[in-house]
Amino acid sequence: MKKTLKVVEIALAFGLFVLTLSKSSIISIVAFFLFVVLLVRLIKNSRILKGISFVLFLYLWQIISIHKLVPSYILPSPMETLQIVLTQSNVILPNLIATLEVTFIGFFFSILFGILLALIMHIAKPIEDLIYPIAVITQSTPTIAIAPLIILWLGFGTLPKIVVVIWATFFPITVNTLLGLRTVDSDMIDVLKAISAKKSDIFKYVIFPHTFTYIITGIEISSPYAILGTLTAEWMGTTVGMGLYIRRSFSSFRLDQVFAGTIIIIIFSLLMWGSATILRQRFTRYLGGEK
Predict the structure, then answer these.
(1) What is the distance between the alpha carbons of residues 290 and 206, in angstroms, rounded to a whole number?
(2) N or C: which end of the chain has fewer CB within 10 A?
(3) Contact between 29 and 63 (Cβ < 8 Å)
(4) pTM for this prediction
(5) CA distance 28 to 192
(6) Using an 8 Å Cβ cutoff, are 15 and 34 in contact?
(7) Cβ contacts of residue 62 below 8 Å, gap of 6+?
(8) Tens-digit pLDDT profile for residues 151-182
(9) How far apart are CA 163 and CA 64, in angstroms?
(10) Are 280 and 220 spatial neighbours (Cβ–Cβ below 8 Å)?
């Protein structure tokens, strides 16, 4: 009975998908949302659902474009956007490489800085009392407000963009690392000390595995902001990068190019976030963790 019901649901989902191709915009959009509801019912695997969510978003966007619910000069279709990506690949690629280079370097140093800051605050409580409010202030200051100042102070090279990325991403890493260090099982450490275990062994077998999960969680939270930080810095002033490409496209009213640049940035932000998520899940599974 359940098998028959599932076959019916699959057939119904296929029928709804066909209806999304209807010439009527109302039928097409209603069919799309019913198709999504049925799809969620049919697919129980959360990973698959997360994987297809962006594809569904693009398909809805294509439906809206086909039925011209929004003028194409305001909202270009995904196919037009893809065409821009393909025809301007020789322009986009060097800008993308420059953006990713700054993003990865900045994020790498952000991770190091965030962990180091957490270690210092964990070891010396007075230093935490001094630094933590300042760290909070950095996060309550919008990146778009501080980026012009950093560029003015440090110039238009790579360094200010790296600093902006660090500014935008270090705080969640610091906070999570600090939380990890503070929630280490003290009883376990006492037991190991009682049997004369080396400090290096205590760190290796107790402190590091526990804290590392929190560090990865901080990296996972920060990762989407890394590219955003780079883009903000490039928007303010640079000679190469996706921020410059998008800004110039916007200034010349080429919204199709703006969408092309934005979609590329979204894809790479999702890839960074997805990589951090997979790393956290695998490490947690390796520990036999509960998260």
Answers:
(1) 16
(2) N
(3) yes
(4) 0.78
(5) 65
(6) no
(7) 77, 78, 79
(8) 888 887 889 999 999 999 999 999 999 999 88
(9) 40
(10) yes
